[in-house]
Amino acid sequence: MNTQWHLPGELIERYTTGHLEAVQVMSVETHLMGCARCREAVPYEREWLTAGWERIADAVDRPRPRPVARILRRCGVPEHVAVFLAATPALARGWLVAVTATVAAAVAVAHLVDSTGAAWTVHPLLFFLTVAPVLPLAGIALAYGPRVDPVHETQAATPMAGSRSLLLRALAVLVCAIVLTGLATPLLPGPPGLAAAWLLPALALTATTLALATRVAPPVSAAVLIVAWSCAVLTTGGLTGDGLVLFSPAAQILYGAATVLLIPLVHLRRARFDPGEPRWNRPSASKN
Amino acid sequence: MEPTVSVQELTKRFGRKVVLDGPTLRLGPGVTGLLGPNGAGKTTLLRILATTLAPDGGRIRALGLDPADRAQRTELRRRLGYLPQDPGFYPHFTVFELTEYVAILKELNGRHERHRQVRRVLAEVDLADRARTKVRRLSGGMRQRLALAQALLGDPGLLILDEPTVGLDPEQRMRFRALVSRLGESRTVLLSTHQTEDVAALCERVVVMKGGRAVFDGTPAGLAATATGRVWSSERSPAASELFWRTADGRYRTLGARPPGAVPAEPGVEDGYLLLLGGDARATA
């Protein structure tokens, strides 16, 4: 390129004020690329140029959002929350596949028992109704804590530590489990009201898991409740002769009441989810 | 002038084991090294300062904030950077994704500012050209730099690094030291290490922990000076009860009482450190 020749001042002025034809602009810019002296002569706003380069760098580096983040964005979740939730270990493909497979198996069992009902003494929906409420618990157990989240220690030193992360992730897991299970509910045999009788137990068990998690780690509280719930369904069915006694309207009222009572309790005790909360700040501890 | 970090009679137990037994420290700007053997309480102290663990007793103020208070603890978390001893990663994330995730944890919610900071910290640790590489494909040294990049998000005034040079080869360690040294020019850096070379190379100040207490607090030169008159060089092996080792020139370096025929040797940071540890050093020698 001939760098002995330089852009006349009048041409630079027409270029900077946007009074050149497209072909002249291309010619000027080709010259500018090879001529430092003329580049110096072209006035520009440093902030504008920096911002332009940053936009280009951003477009090049920006990763494609993960599938979970894309779905959450479409549901109206703010971008940073969607990226945060997409990293939840429980929302990884493994848990979603496990929930889908479990729900599908429970639906299949219901149809199998229903079609050969005479040979069985259990209600076709019992397996589904027993399994569906504990699916969110398994997700919460895998959502938060040093044993399930490799980045937990880093996270614990950030403003998102403790209740903000745990409750946000628990809510995402709960919604996800409810949606997947809810999609399967119309496929079940039997009256729609009974087929949906898993929902309030699911909410009550989730609230109880979070309430217990203020004292023990979420995986422990979830495991305890999964075992307790399964034993309760089997035991009450055996004792009363009605396998669905825990899904009766009276029981549903109790689940609803438990949920309503436990949610404020979890809110009041949320500081206990924070690993940096001193013991002497905790309501039940004596002053140090 | 208020120190960046002030620790007073901090205590922490795990079950019956007393891990911190009342250390008191005041740290200002620059790089401070925390030296000590395994079980001395270094990691516990750093975790408490990083607010990932609550103390049983004592007082802390960091960046003018009291982490015992919930609101001040959250504010402190916005302003500190922490590299844990075992920084975990999501191996299927790219370098950019993982750093962005931690940026969100630090409440950098606006996408453009967040991405700008992610690019800045990756450039600072020389990982800009690896932004799209999966974490599982990184070497140990690169992962350590990635962990440091996360700690630098938000331009923290206090940087807490727990054994940042573990697993690095000599060249990586040298580069890491240069980076930490540069970071210490404009902020308070507290790092724990087993390596007395790290302390001698980059720390303006050193605190030696032993049995949950701070047994030395001063400059590296001061730590070396504590060994003056107690470091000896000899041709013959001293008694087995002494703390000694054979050096590259074939002579024996002994710490403590003068062995027969030995001549005084110039003390170093390691000599002062080992003499402070006393029985602990002998047990691990």
TrEMBL record, chain A:
Q: Which organism is it from?
A: Streptosporangium longisporum
Keywords, ordered alphabetically: Membrane, Transcription, Transcription regulation, Transmembrane, Transmembrane helix
Q: What is the protein name stated in its UniProt record?
A: Zinc-finger domain-containing protein
Q: Does the keyword Coiled coil apply?
A: no
Source domain of life: Bacteria
Membrane-spanning segments = 94-113, 125-145, 166-188, 194-213, 220-239, 245-266
Under the heading Gene3D superfamilies, the entry gives: Anti-sigma factor, zinc-finger domain
Q: Which residues form a coiled coil?
A: none
TrEMBL record, chain B:
Q: Where is the signal peptide?
A: none
Q: Which InterPro entries would you find in this protein's record?
A: AAA+_ATPase, ABC_transporter-like_ATP-bd, ABC_transporter-like_CS, P-loop_NTPase
Pfam families given in the database record: ABC_tran
Q: Which domain of life is it from?
A: Bacteria
Q: Does the keyword Nucleotide-binding apply?
A: yes
Keywords from UniProt, A to Z, are: ATP-binding, Nucleotide-binding, Transport
Q: Which residues form the ABC transporter domain?
A: 5-236
Give this protein's Gene Ontology molecular function annotations.
Answer: ATP binding
Similarity comment: family membership:
Belongs to the ABC transporter superfamily.
Q: What is this protein called?
A: ABC transporter ATP-binding protein
